[in-house]
């Protein structure tokens, strides 16, 4: 089983999600999909800056595992 799939159900933090995305992105062959996912990853890494610049409160209790699962199942669900 691929490492990113094994991570699902165990992603408890932003750092875990970033690691998942890095591994997941490395499995993608389509350059436009890869570019999109890399943009999501970059934004996630600097999301605090977005919230600071827009004067919005950073969401608490983000379910990082659910978000990772959404990205993964989007690649396998027809």
List keywords for this structure.
mainly alpha; 78 residues; 0% strand; 64% helix
What's this entry about, in short?
This protein is mainly α. The chain is 64% helix and 0% strand. The chain has one domain (3-74).
| Number of distinct helices | 5
Structural class computed from helices and strand pairing: mainly alpha
Shape: globular
How many beta strands in the DSSP annotation?
A: 0
Task: Provide structural commentary.
There is one protein chain. The chain has helices spanning 3-7, 14-25, 31-45, 47-53, 64-74. 64% of the residues lie in helices and 0% in strands. The protein has 5 helices and no strands.
Topology:
Elements: H1 3-7, H2 14-25, H3 31-45, H4 47-53, H5 64-74
């Amino acid at each position: 089983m691929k490492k990113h799939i094994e991570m699902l159900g165990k992603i408890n933090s932003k750092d875990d999600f970033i690691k998942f995305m890095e591994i997941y992105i490395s499995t993608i062959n389509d350059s436009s999909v890869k570019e999109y996912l890399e943009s999501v990853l970059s934004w996630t890494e600097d999301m605090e800056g977005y919230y600071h610049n827009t004067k919005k409160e950073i969401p608490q209790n983000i379910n990082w595992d659910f978000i990772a699962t959404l990205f993964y199942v989007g690649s396998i669900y027809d």
